[in-house]
Amino acid sequence: MPKAWIRDVAASAPSYPAAMAVTKTQGAFPDDGSDAVRRRGPSAHQWTQTEEAAPNGEAAPAEDATRGRAAEPAAAAEPAAAAGVAAGAAEAPRPKPKTTGVIFVHGIGSQKQAETLLQWSAPIIEVITDWKRWFVRRPELVRDPVEAARIDFSDDRPTIDLSIPAATVGGREFPEARWILTESWWAAKVEPPALSTMTSWLGPQGGAGQIVTAILGNREGTHVVFRAAVAPFVSVLAGLVLSIYALVRGVTALIPIKAVSDAAILRAFDEFLTGWFGDVRILVYDPVQSANIRAGLAGAIRKLDEVDHVDRVVVMAHSGGAMVSYLTLTDPVYAGLKVDKLITFGEGWNLATTLTPLARGLGDRLRMDITKRAHPMLWRDYWASHDPAPAGAARTTEIRGGAGNPGRVRSRLVWNRRSLLDDHGSYFENDEEFTLSVLREIDCPESWGETPDGEAPRSRFYPTPPGNEVETSPPADQRERRHRERVATLALWRQLVIALPVAVITAVLASSSRLTEIGQYAVAPLKAIPIFNDIGTIVIDWLRSLKPPDVWVGAVWLPDAVYWLGLGTLQAIVLVSILQLTFAPVTAYEAWPTDDWRRRLFIGAEVTVGFLLVFATLPLILTPDHGKLLGSQWGWWPGIVLTIATIAFAWVGSNVPKAWPSTTRLFAGGAVVVFAAAMASAVLAIFKRTDLEVGELGYAVIWLGFILLYKLGSGRWTQWDRIERRVAYRESPTETVRRRSVWLSMIGFTLVAAALSLWFLNTGWPLLGYPIERWIGAAGVALIGAAIVVGSFDWKGSENVISSPGAVESARGRV
Question: Where are the beta strands (DSSP E) in 600-672?
Fold first, then answer.
């Protein structure tokens, strides 16, 4: 090749800043031809395709027979190599690194184009950056691994190229690798179902009840009584509420006032029904749109093969994206797709099989055997302990005829936040158990990421042994164990600040006036606002004027029956809360081994919480003042009777419909009627007594006090979590930070919670001339202050990521 031609090519090539220039508006990048070069890979001048070495040192064949992917033409790589020579590069050509294409598949919702790619890649890139610092230690390398990115928010195929350097980890040499991250964006490929369709499916057709059954049916620690009472009730209640909502939306659509017909709250609820749950229905009940979504993922997989010429393909899917992935990889039309590994987290496939019987919708497609149709693909699944979407491990038992290759599917339990509300969206905040593990799985797509005992590391990223077979035991890996210890602390703190206000409210109800006194703290500022004072007075007077009709029902005078039901409802709410908190502990102690003193400490703490709840109930049941507060001559008996009736009602609802399915609607309808009557009776019971509505505000004051305390404590926990996550990126799995600050904070916040409880109870116990709660509260605040000071010294060498968490922290918690 003439050298003059090489010089001309090098001189005419655009500079890197000019090629990547883009305005802040969401527009396309300049079409300068650089994309064709980028598709051949970063630093293309550093290797030649034809000189790629085989494992035995011979030249690699032009085609990978195992995958059927043709090698890039030598002519395509030659100009890049020549350009490197013209620029004065002294490095000799080296083998082309293996390339792994990673496709992110988002879940249900209204994600924007490239949003998932940016959010999921941020924590992955953060960890790789720190891994290079501790494991590679080559100062000539740029710290971050991003070699190229093409994200213009309009192209349907945004990509990020990552360069993974060679490294020696655990005595094994890992060659250089290249990852291409992209996404399969399907949020805009869905035409949402009509509002009437969704209200009918979720309501009268029982969709909401099926969702609740799926969530509660496999939830560890969920009582059968609770499941039986909730599922049928939710089904009919949802039908009632959604039918009314559909009627309201029909009326508002006729109103010519745009501000009313397009009210933000109504549009938001419309979006929730049709845009979120609507996606689920489209995936499993609409053959055409579901096929269109599957085509999008199949196209992304093919482009990685045909355009980027990757060596391996990994599909990574969250929530509803797992439904998309499963349906695509089992579709006979796409039998030729080559995917090495499927990674799912918070998967919705379990839920989809529950919502879709075999003979309905796409139920048959959902139950095809992925272990045969996508063979030899591996499926790595992650599910959080309290994530309501998967509600457990991937249930391959739903596959028709059973999984042909069950050993190619592994589900792993992780601890995110041990919270029903937070677990589904906090996987990428769980670095030790999730993010690091995902890196290992991507790094070795053709095998599992863990390293069996006695073997060399399979992945360059933080080698770790396989997880324990017993899910209630702590992990073997020290990094993962420290993470679970942090989550256990947060879970116990959450349990404490939920149990304490319930115990306080229960004890306060034993007084005839204390709840009203607490309510005055909320009334005073509200009375200062004229509109609240005027409107509140009108509403209260109207509610007090309501009276049940003076009729007999059998042998019972109706006003007495209504008040008895209302009083029992108020009491039963307290009793059921106590039972649920007492018999459904968070089992945070499972983060430690059986012989660890901290396990015994946490067991003692959970037992103490249950004891406080039971102890608080006794004076409420035994004291005569409780009757004075509510004006009841029956004492505590209405609540006890109604609680027992609720348990019996739940048992009937759990067993009778199984024997006679036709009674399901009848039972659920009865549950709705009883619930509505109980709530209406409770309102009338509250406003029958003068100033009792102020006492009801006392409930709000108590809860707000403990919620504020929880936020402060969890904020301190977040700082601790950030620090230890950064330490987990280091080379040694046993390296940690000192936890003196943590123990001081735990004791301090517990003392403040105790002081707040005593103040609400108005114990009046003196100590050196001051109420004892003041001394306890002051001691708690002092310990929290000491914890902040101690932590500033202990965590000083662990990088200050508290004050400025940056863009990566902003991206976390959105998945």
Answer: none
pLDDT band with cut points at 50, 70 and 90 for residue 50: very low
Q: What is the mean pLDDT of residues 356-370?
A: 89
What does the pLDDT look like over 692-745, one tens digit per residue?
Answer: 677 778 888 899 999 999 999 999 999 899 888 888 888 888 888 889 999 999
Whole-angstrom distance, CA of residue 494 vs CA of residue 330: 42
Residue 103: pLDDT above 50?
A: yes
Evaluate whether 553 touches 561 at the Cβ level (below 8 Å).
yes
State how far the alpha carbon of 179 is from the alpha carbons of 43, 161, 176, 789, in Å: 13, 6, 10, 43
For residue 610, CA distances in Å to 123, 382, 571, 606, 616 come to: 39, 32, 19, 6, 10
Q: What is the mean pLDDT of residues 81-88?
A: 42
* CA-based nearest residue to 815, from 414, 401, 427, 265: 427
Q: How far apart are the first and last CA of the chain?
A: 52
Q: Mapped to the 3 state alphabet, what secondary structure does 47-98 carry? A: ECHHHCECCCCCECCCEECCCCEECCCHHHHHHHHHHHHHCCCCCCCECCCE
| Nearest C-alpha neighbor of 745 from the set 765, 722, 715 | 715
Cα 274-278-279 angle, rounded to 5 deg: 130
- Centroid of chain to Cα 144: 27
Which of the two residues, 166 and 92, has the higher pLDDT score? 166
800: pLDDT strictly greater than 80: no
Prediction pTM value: 0.79
Q: What is the DSSP letter of 220?
A: T
Which contiguous run of DSSP H or E holds residue 552?
strand 552-553
CA angle 266, 270, 272 (to 5 degrees): 115
pLDDT single digits (tens) 415-467: 999 988 888 889 999 999 999 999 999 999 999 999 888 889 999 999 988 87
Q: Long-range contacts made by residues 634-641, C-beta under 8 angstroms, separation at least 24?
A: 634/564, 634/567, 636/571, 638/564, 638/565, 638/567, 638/568, 638/571, 639/567, 639/568, 639/570, 639/571, 639/572, 639/574, 639/575, 640/571, 640/575, 641/568
Residue 560 has a CB neighbour count (10 Å cut-off) of: 13
Q: What pLDDT, in 10s, does the model give residues 170-201? A: 889 999 999 999 999 988 777 766 665 665 56
801 within 8 A of 726, measured Cβ to Cβ: yes
CA distance 644 to 642: 5
pLDDT of 799 strictly over 60: no
DSSP, res 434: I
pLDDT at 733: 87
Q: How far is it, in rounded angstroms, from Cα 447 to Cα 372? A: 17
The DSSP annotation for 242-259 comes to: HHHHHHHHHHHHH-S-HH
Cβ atoms 472, 480 nearer than 8 A: no
Determine how β-strand 177-184 pairs with β-strand 69-70: unpaired
- The helix-helix angle for 3-12 and 74-86 (nearest 10°) equals 80
Whole-number Å distance between alpha carbons of 311 and 304 = 9
Q: How far is the CA of 415 from the CAs of 418, 483, 590, in angstroms?
A: 6, 8, 11
Strand 312-318, strand 341-345: pairing: parallel
